[in-house]
Amino acid sequence: MDVTVPLEGKVALVTGSTSGIGLAIARALSSNGADVAINGLGSPEQIDEVVKRLASDSERRVVHFSHDLSAIAEAGGLVEAATAEFGRVDILVNNAGVQHIASVDEFPDEQWHRLIAINLTAAFATTRAVWPQMKDRGWGRIINTASTLAFTAETRKSGYVATKHGILGLTREIALEGAQLGITCNAVCPAWVLTPLVAKQVEEKAAELQYSFEEAARNYFVTDIPTRRFVETDEIAASVLFLCSEAARSITGIALPVDGGSLIV
Ligand code: NAD
Fold it and tell me: 206 alpha carbon to ligand 1 midpoint, in Å?
């Protein structure tokens, strides 16, 4: 994506950035000049590889933080740790997210609480923790990865849909609280992106219908998207980059669909 935004001197913290959309966002921010705190799960070898690749592509500082966002204290602690390492956090991208698929009568308590904790509570806790320093500097960018499911619903996704509607409400609230402080807060709303989170769903659908992966992807996933292709991680990252720019300083509280037209059909 040939969007460029000068971010030299800024520090970004991107949750859930060891794979998928978060990794593309971390890459876009670092290649535009920001030092980046990444976070997420993975083996030490995978994480080492991600950090080295990001740092060598951008020549910026990249440090991984292993905080598990299913615990609210860890989410606040992540901001503290990133601030201790880099001296500041100017850009916060709340991107970590997980899925569990089951009909409402079979949805386990622990999965409901896990989705609420990682997809929603963690974003509240990181925002609360980063707020004083953004307020003091009179500048901040908070971007939450929501979903088209912040507006619509899909069967067997009660936990996920509730959290994505919730993150949109949080986004609007934080936008209001930051409006006179130089802090913007926006959400990006992707449709299907072929990341590990979705590949698992395609595999399950393929197994259920005895389809190949490609047939399941074509017949059950991209059919929802008017452009008839998956949204790409770099396309989400380009939107995040724009929302971090000075040009976007009056854009706050929005939910930006990056969805190939999914929300118009
Ligand atoms: P992904 O599985 O590739 O990435 C999820 C990231 O979250 C990983 O880095 C993972 O390690 C991290 N994570 C998971 N549990 C964590 C925990 N307890 N603590 C810290 N990190 C944790 O998935 P993705 O598709 O890139 O998803 C990123 C975001 O995009 C999510 O919020 C998801 O809901 C959203 N989204 C995805 C799609 C899609 O089609 N892929 C569509 C709309 C929205």
Answer: 21
